[in-house]
Design a protein that fits this description.
single chain, mainly alpha, about 75% helix
Length: about 550
């Protein structure tokens, strides 16, 4: 009772303070071009994402946590004025919720989500997913096999991370369910083959984003630079190596171990929070065939690639690589998914596995299945907008650009850590490397240190994106696995932190090695350093495995 009274007193005190700020500060911005809030580009500009992340991990409730983070950002931007804060939250042209939901790229992603939701509903209704699960059960006889198949499919779908998350999830859920792989582990495998694979795939929407981030007039070919960074992209490569180690040794640690132990005993979810219900394939026979899943998925892949190069101008005479570099990923995915949806309807009608009424019923079902990730994405975009209004990215960028020249060969690990922090706080890796790459190009105009530093920036951006609960890729991995979002984040963090720690150590080693190599750095030396990085991680994982097994035996 006493604690409750204290809470009410604290709430009233905060409200009274806000009323005082409202009376003392203007409720409208006279000149938006010159307006800056009191905490602009200071450490306090990072408060909104920190508040949202801490609340989400502690309360296990993501919607309210994001809303609190957004509201705190709006209040900071408004210097405590309630009127200005409400207008900022909804109507600010640079970061408000309405502006974020008016952005064509964001709306395109939401439409793509709905299209995929409908496609998944159609495949389930036609029996394609169940048929594939039964077929896979005759070819995949172990938990390791189911997990490796998930990893392999994720690597094969390297075109775009959004597309990867939802496609791999819809195809592999029946397979992993039958082999009693937890939904948390499935979500991790999906997430581990989304951004980490896309950032080392030359033909992907991520390669296009990196290429466009290299500043004009720098004398650097963005695509060539991207190719040279691949051996130094330690976090992405070590994440894939780590996934293989975990799969084939059966090692699990942290909260993931509890989820996997429960899955072996029949509970695939562990948590009470099940936003998609108990959607486990019960093995009921249907009239569906494996082709009812494979055909729509193959058409979806081909159509999305077609949509991307179409938006990049491939059919107007532009070469394939340039078309990918200049593509509009959002528009391309919408175009591809709409073609796949039309094909699926015609295909199912020709095969006579679905009536028109069944098809129509799947449209609202697919939409409802995607409400949760759509809501989280909308809130995450708004939170990112609030963080942008507070100048958080400039605060972090200034920390990096202020590094002493004496730390030149320690700069790769510094860049990596700064990129991790910025991507984790903002939930966007694209925004992170678009900010940091120009700074890196200014610090190192040429040479192998430029390649290493850009690779560290990309690696850190992917790591922060992989860990962040407000990252759209993390949200979509949860949606693809039909897993509780907070449970996915909390079970994934120990694995991501392990890979990130190994990557950080390897960037220290690489920086020191470059100090001795000087201008002699080459592809050969980068491959040797990559081999060292893999060896370091395997040693760390082996130690973790021994300690985990020893603890389990006690």
């Amino acid at each position: 009772m006493k604690n409750k009274n204290l809470s009410w007193f604290a709430a009233l005190l905060v409200f009274a303070l806000l009323l005082w700020c409202t009376a003392a500060t203007p409720g409208k911005i006279a000149d938006p071009s010159t307006y800056t809030c009191a905490v602009y580009s200071t450490i306090f500009s990072l408060l909104p994402p920190v508040i949202a992340i801490v609340l989400a991990l502690n309360t296990k409730e993501v919607y309210t946590s994001l809303l609190v983070g957004i509201a705190s950002g709006a209040l900071l931007y408004a210097n405590g004025n309630l009127e200005l804060a409400i207008n900022t939250l909804f109507f600010n042209e640079d970061g408000g919720m309405v502006a974020k939901l008016s952005d064509s790229s964001n709306v395109g992603i939401l439409v793509f989500l709905v299209m995929l939701g409908i496609l998944v509903a159609l495949m389930n209704k036609a029996g394609g997913s169940a048929a594939f699960g039964r077929w896979a059960s005759t070819h995949i006889h172990s938990r390791a096999g189911a997990q490796f198949a998930t990893l392999l499919l994720g690597v094969m779908i390297f075109v775009d991370d959004y597309f990867n998350c939802l496609t791999v999830g819809s195809v592999m859920r029946p397979v992993t369910d039958r082999q009693k792989v937890s939904r948390a582990k499935l979500a991790y495998l999906i997430d581990a083959t989304a951004a980490p694979v896309c950032i080392i795939a030359p033909v992907s929407s991520w390669a296009a984003a990196v290429t466009s981030s290299v500043p004009e007039g720098s004398g650097i070919n963005g695509f060539t630079m991207f190719l040279r960074t691949i051996p130094y992209n330690y976090y992405a490569l070590l994440t894939i190596v780590m996934s293989l180690f975990l799969i084939f040794t059966g090692t699990d640690f942290g909260s993931m171990k509890l989820n996997e132990d429960n899955a072996r005993n029949g509970d695939l979810f562990t948590t009470a929070d099940r936003p998609y219900g108990n959607d486990v394939d019960d093995g009921t026979d249907t009239c569906g065939h494996v082709a009812d899943l494979i055909a729509p998925v193959l058409v979806l892949i081909a159509a999305c690639i077609f949509g991307m190069i179409y938006t990049g101008g491939f059919f107007e005479g532009v070469d394939f690589v340039t078309a990918f570099a200049d593509c509009n990923a959002s528009a391309g995915l919408v175009l591809g998914s709409s073609i796949a949806l039309l094909f699926t309807f015609v295909f199912y009608r020709v095969r006579n596995v679905m009536t028109f009424q069944d098809f129509a019923a799947c449209i609202p079902e697919g939409f409802k299945a995607m409400v949760s990730p759509m809501l989280i994405l909308s809130l995450a975009w708004t939170l990112s907008g609030m963080t942008g209004l507070l100048g958080a990215k400039y605060y972090v960028a200034n920390l990096l650009s202020g590094s002493a020249a004496a730390l030149q060969y320690m700069l790769p690990v510094i860049i990596f850590l700064v990129a991790v922090f910025l991507a984790f706080a903002t939930g966007t890796s694209w925004g992170t490397f678009s900010i940091l790459i120009p700074i890196v190009c200014h610090a190192f105009p040429e040479g192998e240190m430029l390649v290493i530093s850009i690779a560290a920036c990309l690696s850190g951006a992917v790591c922060g994106d992989h860990c962040s609960p407000i990252s759209d890729t993390t949200i979509m991995a949860s949606a693809g696995a039909h897993c509780s979002h907070v449970n996915h984040v909390s079970t994934q963090l120990p694995y991501a932190i392990t890979a990130a720690s190994c990557a950080a150590v390897c960037y220290v080693i690489t920086g020191i090695a470059q100090a001795f190599l000087g201008a002699n750095g080459s592809l050969f030396t980068s491959l040797i350093l990559l081999a060292v990085a893999i060896a370091v991680e395997l040693v760390v994982l082996s130690v973790i495995r021994v300690r985990t097994n020893k603890k389990a035996a006690e």
